[in-house]
What we know:
Layout: H1 5-11, H2 16-26, E1 33-37, H3 42-53, E2 57-62, H4 65-74, E3 80-84, H5 90-104, E4 109-112, H6 127-155, E5 158-162, H7 175-194, E6 201-206, H8 239-251, E7 256-258, H9 261-272, H10 274-285, E8 286-287, E9 290-291
Parallel strand pairs: 1-2, 1-4, 2-3, 4-5, 5-6, 6-7
Antiparallel strand pairs: 8-9
Amino acid sequence: xxxxxxxxxxxxxxxxxxxxxxxxxxxxxxxxxxxxxxxxxxxxxxxxxxxxxxxxxxxxxxxxxxxxxxxxxxxxxxxxxxxxxxxxxxxxxxxxxxxxxxxxxxxxxxxxxxxxxxxxxxxxxxxxxxxxxxxxxxxxxxxxxxxxxxxxxxxxxxxxxxxxxxxxxxxxxxxxxxxxxxxxxxxxxxxxxxxxxxxxxxxxxxxxxxxxxxxxxxxxxxxxxxxxxxxxxxxxxxxxxxxxxxxxxxxxxxxxxxxxxxxxxxxxxxxxxxxxxxxxxxxxxxxxxxxxx
Length: 293
């Protein structure tokens, strides 16, 4: 099984026991069909890598053809169904899901991972930026799930939404991103209840700050990718470690998964001490009354 050295760094050391344990944990994926949106970067790519390594049949999509081609070359020895797709477009989502079903006969697990962030004060941001973030992060998940639901119902499969701590606590400079994740979680909770007696598993995961390209691609107030991260990516949770935890949560059919101590602490504080959390969050993101993170 392929596994990133970065993952083992995150857990402190490499040991054969860890590899053995991981093989057991992930054996449930063998021969299952897993559809992952946004599979060429960050958490999405780590999920693709690990699902393939565990013997799953994987389908993925992304907007960048060159990155998809590189991903296919990396996994040239297995069947990887990969197509270009902008999840903010319903027709693209329909094509991705229907082509996956045609290729593999159905879908067992749908991971709605594709997303885009933004970094701008609401007062400065164009409305189109907010719309683009909502179309990608919320409606992209809605579109893919709508077209995949019949086969997931048939297979009593799993629907996953990759959310964020911003789905529990609104973050300054990321108003649209927070709104999209709040919407995602509310929608998933609603359909989880609707599907309660069908055998379908619905969950969302909140990775916290994870090392990925999402901050580099985050939109500024005019909708242009910023091209840089305001955070020290080296200190963040590695994407392979995050993907591993997501897969474990899927296997154990968890309701939700919140990763990182800071993420859990933020949610806890926001529930019990919301006014204090406002001040702490402001202090984290602002310096001299200017958004710095």
